[in-house]
Every structure is written in C-alpha cells, then in structure tokens.
Amino acid sequence: MASKAKCGACGPGYKTPLDAMKGPREEIVYLPCIYRSTGIEKPDYLATVDVDPKSPTYSQVIHRLPMPNLRDELHHSGWNTCSSCHGDPTKMRNRLILPSLISSRIYVVDVGTNPRAPKMHKVVEPVDVYWKCNLANPHTSHCLGSGEIMISSMGDPSGNAKGGFILLDGETFEVKGNWEKDGHAADFGYDFWYQPRHNVMISTEWGVPKVLAGGFDPADVNAGHYGHSINVWDWTEHTLIQTIDLGEDGGIPLEVRFLHNPDAAEGFVGCALRSTVFRFYKTQAGDWAADKVIQVPNKTVEGWAMPEMPGLITDILLSLDDRFLYFSNWLHGDIRQYDVTDTKKPKLVGQVFLGGSIVKGGPVTVVKDEELTCQPEPLVIKGKRVHGAPQMIQLSLDGKRIYVTTSLFSKWDKQFYPDMIKEGSVMLQIDVDTQKGGLKLNTDFLVDFGKEPDGPALAHEIRYPGGDSTSDIWV
C-alpha cells in the first residue's frame, strides 16, 4: 500500500498532501483493542480489519496480535517513518509504534513482513522511559524527518502531570532521552504537531494521569487537574517559548491539527470540556494566537450526572486538501463536517448521529436544545444496537470515507457508557459528500467488537498501512 514500490528512489509516504489524496484505497486498517477496566483479564491487542468491499472478509477482524502484558491501555499509534522522510529511499514504513497510556510501555510492531498479520518486533519497558526521560504515560507518536521517533508524554513516573517528549532511535527503537531541553517540559501533555517551515511545534493538554485514570469528576477541573492551554515550542531549539491560555472555553484541548499544507501557519484544536474548536495561527508579530471559531451548544438535560451536557469533542481531523474539518461529539453522539475554506469562519455542511447519550428511549431527557427539535433515534445496524458514540475518526486518503470507533478511554467508557463495556465497541464507516458536504452511514459496514473471541473489547484509534491524515506530516 505504500507508494515506495511505484516511486522507485523515493522514501515512504507521498511528496505532498495532494499526492496522498491520489493514493490507493485502503484495504486493511490497524486498531488497538483494550481490555483494561472491562473485567476481562486478557491483554490488549492490535486488530487488523479488512475494509476492502471486494474481499470475502470485508468488515471483519482478520488478525489479532495480543500484547505480552495485561492492563497496558493501548491508545494511539504512530509510524517509524512517514511522509516527513519521503525523500529518503533508505526509509520504509514497516513498524507501528504503540505507546501504552497506563503501563508506559512502548510496543514496536512489525507490519512490514506480513501487513495482514503483524507480529511483535520490540518492547520498550517503562523503566527505560522513567530512567532516561523522567516521563510516563506516553500518548502521541510522530516520526521525524531526522529518522527519529518522538512520543509525547502526559506525566512523570509518579503520575503527576508533565508535558515532555520521548525520543526513540528510528532503527533500534532504543530510548535516546528527552526531546525538550532540560527545564522546558509543559505543565500538561497530550497531543502534538510540528511544522518545520515555521520552526514550530504545538502541543496540547489533557490532565493529571493519576487523577483521570480512575474516571472523570467535574470537581477535578475546578481543582486545576485538567489543562486549558496550548503550548508553542521552538522546533530547532527544543524549548517552550509560549503558552496560550484558551480560558474556560478551551478546557481540555485534545487533538491538534495543523493544516496539511506545510507552508500554512495555522491549524485547529478541539477542546473537549466546552465542545469548542479554536483556530491557532502565527501573528504578524511572529508569535502565536488562538481564537474560538466553533462552539457546540450544551444541551439542558434531566436524568444525567449534570444538568448541562456538553458535546465533548474528542477527536478532530482535516482532509488532506485542508478543505474540510471533521470532529466527533462523544456525549451528544454526532460527527460533524465543516467547510474550512475560510479558516476563520467554518461552515457546518454535514452531520450524522451514531448513538450517544441523548438518544430516544434512554435515561436522558433533553429539556432544552438550541440545535435539535427532537432527540435522535438509537442506532441499530445489522441488528446490533450501538452503545457508546463516535469517538476516534479516520478519513480515507481521497476524503470520501470516514471510519469511526466508539471507545474513548476504558475508565471513562465504563463511567459514561457502561453498556459498551458489556456489549463491546463498534467500528462504523461513513460516506462523505466531498462536493457539497454531507455525511451518511454505510449500513453494509459493521465491525462488532462485542463478538471478539476473548469477550467484548474496546476498539480505539485507526491507522492505514500507507499512512493517513492524522499520522503524516509534510516538511
């Protein structure tokens, strides 16, 4: 699936984001499946799913690679190399990096030898991360143009918040040490994206690992245990140069996405707590600023933990041509598509509800809603009632299909969607209108992780073997 075979002397990935849009259709995807917090004493595993409509095993799990340990909480994954190394013919995208959010292990999986049946290549034990970096709770993995791998962290070995970065050697996968200069870690960590042409990296903030690991308590927000800033780094100096406080409306800024165009000096960040999207950008003075450009209104409800229910934006992404922004509202249960041709004024052009906490017939009654006239119907697909709501999303290279999974983080899943723990999460596919905008569920596609051999599992982030819009960075 990688373009290397067609490209001859080129390296992995694609020369430009627009070239990537012309890449082949995805045939398989990888996604981590979690058993921590489900009551099933089995290791998390990496699932390979067939997404080729012409295949006899379409929308089925065709391989499972169990981890060698229990209770890792696999979360997000990344590559040993990507389009940032496109000009280097010695590089090959053949290893998937799987950081564990709770155990702090980092698994390196061989997806090159047999892409349909990955196997374990190396395990980086937590002690290496603790001793060499004084970091823990690794989250986002990105490959660098240097050939190294960089992984953001959320904490220190004691479970306190600490936003630093782990560097792995791209060949041996040994821990090299910290990316950031000593004394320059941010207060909180989570996601990051870099843009070398502007000598910048932006990182985001979730919360204190030992606090959020057990579940969400609104009192922890008031106690200062969750972040509300984005952090600006000097890419060549490895120093924290600016912290932009997004205020109350920017509570828990999670996924950050620069525009894919490597010349662009702007991007978006989705903030979970108030369901807002901020646009960040370079100012004429040369520093960085952020403005709120999307606000999803809360719904006034009865029968829920609080009287106001936020949408809880948990994942966002941009199409490779930077035309559309997508995000999921994990509590309300919808995925939205915005035209961001004018980045300052996103326009809602598509929306689809796929479960959520406000469906008809559930325990929650919506008493005031600025957007909907009635509560959405529960989602039943192929006879399966979907418990949970859209969470992680991934867009096909051509922008015409979105794959979606429903698990956020095992302890939070258990708290907000207890039926999903019992019934398992699902993977769905949405067809996208890339002309006028619009989203429609593909009723022929369902991966039911409630029917896994070892019991119902929680499926998380989705990756394509040839790279995708949330893993590849162009330099």
Automatic annotation (TrEMBL):
Coiled coil: none annotated. Its main location: nucleus. It catalyses: methanethiol + O2 + H2O = hydrogen sulfide + formaldehyde + H2O2 + H(+). One of its GO terms (molecular function) is selenium binding. It comes from the Eukaryota. InterPro entries: Se-bd, WD40/YVTN_repeat-like_dom_sf. This is Methanethiol oxidase. GO terms for cellular component: cytosol; membrane; nucleus. Pathway: Organosulfur degradation. Keywords: Acetylation, Cytoplasm, Membrane, Nucleus, Oxidoreductase, Protein transport, Selenium, Transport. It comes from Pleurodeles waltl. It is found in: Nucleus; Cytoplasm, Cytosol; Membrane. It is an enzyme of class 1 (oxidoreductase). Catalyzes the oxidation of methanethiol, an organosulfur compound known to be produced in substantial amounts by gut bacteria. Selenium-binding protein which may be involved in the sensing of reactive xenobiotics in the cytoplasm. May be involved in intra-Golgi protein transport. It holds the Pfam family SBP56. Its EC number is 1.8.3.4.
